[in-house]
Write a structure and sequence with these properties.
15% helix; 143 residues
Length: 143
């Protein structure tokens, strides 16, 4: 894959819609430690980096709108080194915690957060290397 400085280098890049891009960028960077890498217009879009991943914050318009109602339409998972410190940072910024840091049999400690605009985030910290078969999963080998 060719590199392009105008697009994040991650293979999968979620694009999430927010009513106020600048406000969302400030909140996401302050709460989750993301870093703004590209700004497009004053309030059109922003590209944020996190580890070797990325997320794009987009404005509303056309058929783009933030989540509405109580249903969960998506969750963006971000792998981090320390779920507990992120939990404290997010709480300090007023995040809604939907799942306290929890250890799972598949070797991850996860935190569930709802941002002020209704986007659900799952932060995952590896605490053990566990084969999927040990917790009921199945490793699939491509044919």
């Amino acid at each position: 894959m060719r590199a392009n400085r105008s697009v994040p280098g991650a293979t999968v890049i979620p694009v999430l819609t927010y009513p106020d891009v600048r406000q969302a960028v400030r909140w996401l960077c302050g709460s989750f430690g993301f870093v703004e890498r590209v700004r497009i217009g004053e309030d059109h879009r922003a590209q944020l980096s996190v580890g070797n991943g990325a997320v794009i914050v987009a404005d509303t318009g056309g058929d783009r709108r933030p989540p509405e109602g109580d249903g969960v339409t998506h969750s963006v998972m971000v792998r981090v080194d320390d779920v507990q410190s992120l939990h404290e940072q997010a709480m300090g910024q007023g995040a809604t915690i939907v799942m306290e840091p929890t250890d799972f049999a598949f070797g991850e400690r996860q935190l569930g957060v709802l941002d002020p605009w209704g986007h659900r985030w799952t932060f995952s910290q590896t605490i053990a290397d566990v084969a999927p078969e040990e917790w009921g999963g199945q490793t699939v080998t491509p044919e």
